[in-house]
Amino acid sequence: MSNGSSKHYAIGYDEEHERLERQARIGKVEDHLNKFSFATDAVVLDAGCGPGSMTRLLARAAPDGRAVGVDVSEDYLQYARTRAKDEGIENISFEKGDVFSLPFDDDTFDLVWCKYVLQWVNNPVHAVEEFRRVTRPGGKVVCCNFDGFSVTHYPVDDSFQQDVIRVFNHLVDPNVGRKMFSMFHSSGLKDIKVDFEPDATFTVAGAIDGDRRQNWVDQFGAAFQSIAECLGSEQAAQSFVDRFLEYHDREDTFTTCALYFVEGVVP
């Protein structure tokens, strides 16, 4: 991402592509295909594709078309290309680029898909406008983002909750999901539809399972310096991580996070 419109991606690290693949599995991304429709010969863009988990699913769902993944990280792209090749997917490609200046002509795609990206950008409307630019008239833009990310818990520990809100607002926009309808409207998209469901990755009732817990451990490890910057010291950051995990290890806690799907049509 560029143009000064991005937050720092606080959880980038050498094995991040493997964590994202695991997170896609936890989040059941294959079920996302039930939230929107496109033709089997569609040309589809996965904007901010990461390791290409969803790109591969989109390519399989459009066997007579093709899927393109774009990301700023060459490491992700190399991993994505290797996975697609190993899985024998031929109608797929990956290109380097950012969501504010996509390396494609106007009216290129029948569908642009984007998940877990807009929370990282300071000007998400700019990104949605760029998605619209590369989508053909009559085509769709579909964005998927969480809302209430890791800040909605019960029972509430009032003293710790202040740090939870402080940290996650420092790292991302934890409530971006509810804002996307307005973004789509501002970008001139029409026939806007909104759907939402529990985010399977970050909604947990009772003690957290091993895969989801490890997902947090890996994210906190990568974001540790950013958390320390937010809270003022590494000691405070470690205390925060320990308390967060201890809370999620309890049998009596519930953490809820919504996942919004917003779809708009290019007029």
Query: Which geometry do the CA atoms define?
Result: globular
Helix content bin: 25-40%
Our count of helices gives 8
- Give the C-level CATH assignment: Alpha Beta
CATH architecture annotation name = 3-Layer(aba) Sandwich
Number of domains: 1
Biggest sheet statistics: 7 strands, mixed
Strand content: 15-25%
Number of strands: 10
Radius of gyration: 18 Å
Overall mean pLDDT stands at 94
Quick recap:
This protein is α/β, with parallel strands linked by helices.
What does this structure look like?
- The protein is α/β, with parallel strands linked by helices.
- It has one domain: Rossmann fold, CATH 3.40.50.150.
- It is built from eight helices and ten strands.
- The protein has a seven-stranded mixed beta sheet with strand order 3-2-1-4-5-10-7, with helices on both faces.
- Strand 2 (66-71), helix 3 (74-86) and strand 3 (92-96) form a beta-alpha-beta unit.
- Helix 1 (16-26) crosses helix 7 (210-231), helix 5 packs across helix 7 (210-231) and helix 7 packs antiparallel against helix 8 (234-249).
- It is globular, with a radius of gyration of 18 Å.
- The model is unreliable at 6-10 (pLDDT under 50).
